[in-house]
Amino acid sequence: MKAAVLQFPGSNCDRDMAMALKQAGADVTMVWHKEADLPAGIDVIGVPGGFSYGDYLRCGAIAANSPITKALKAHVERGGYAFGICNGFQVLTEARLLPGALLRNAGLKYICRTVGLAVETTDSPYTSAYAQGQHIGIPIAHHDGNFTADEDTLDRLEGEGLVAFRYLDNPNGSKRNIAGILSDNRRVLGMMPHPERAAEAAHGNEDGKAFFTSLLDAVVSA
Amino acid sequence: MKARVFVMLKNGVLDPQGAAVQHALGALGFDGVNEVRQGKVIELDLADGTTEASINEMCEKLLANTVIESYRVELL
Hints:
The complex is a heterodimer. By secondary structure, chain A is an alpha/beta fold. Chain A is 23% helix and 26% strand. The longest helix of chain A is centred in the C-terminal third of the chain and has 13 residues, at 209-221. The relative contact order of chain A is 0.18. In chain B, 32% of the residues lie in helices and 28% in strands. Chain B has two helices and three strands, in the order βαβαβ. Chain B has helices at residues 16-27, 52-63, and strands at residues 2-9, 40-45, 69-75. Chain B has a three-stranded antiparallel sheet, covered by helices on one side.
């Protein structure tokens, strides 16, 4: 599996994401945001966490209009796999590759701690190695993770099984406790929690490892 | 020519910052502040002849996220 991890000015979880992908067996290329094209043969694009462009205007808004994001959109339109973690989720919603938006946390505080999640579907390239309804602990670190969308969109996400993860104890005010969602074709995922920060023994928590092994399985067998 | 763009969270979208400002005004003794909504103002210095349609497109594509925000353009 060939993966690309995008780097924007202010990305700071890009190397963690690359490491988690490599440990799952992926061949990873880092791609600077000014590039107009992705390297040939990329299967998966990861959009990492951080504070792209200093969160100016709105989190993810400037990155969503970066040159490399056009290539990301074309990759997704071709049916390619892409996932965004934390700021990456914000970029994917701002780029309209996923529905909804991420607002300031309801309690206004930046929150950095491990939270409980329920795996809401195993029918996705990112969650197949988990058990349906499994409870996992994954770190969050965000100020703007309060997922919102209109009621029709929320009903559709739930009705079509496009909610990937839900918070067990909602930390940020997200509608319907949603922590991560999938696109209609289930190949694009966005989530606020950081599975790449819980992906090896040295992290003291390996609950995020199955996210990356699921992805490897899905892409290699596709 | 100049334009001013007002961006606000849509009605019904929770504005926790506005709520915090309202709370702080109450703590200062300003009674009767029923609600505070916080938005942003963006001033654009534009080439003469820029159309309002073009400014609206700027708003739709970047300045506002119309999933959660509404905008209003004022030509100066």
